[in-house]
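Page 42, continued from yesterday. The earlier attempt failed because a stray header line got pasted into the input along with the sequence. Redoing it now with the clean sequence only.
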Amino acid sequence: MIEVGAGIGVIFGHYPDTVAEVIAVEPENRLRGQAVTPRSTHR
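This time it went through. Structure tokens are written below.
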């Protein structure tokens, strides 16, 4: 899945388990700096 304008990534935890990979792009420096850790590190 490609997430454009990912913000801080709060939506990532709502993706179904069938989503194997997410490529997230956030052009806003402030939001990108606040992004959450990818879900794959929580499994």
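Notes: Residues 2-42 form one domain.
Reminder to self: strip header lines before submitting.
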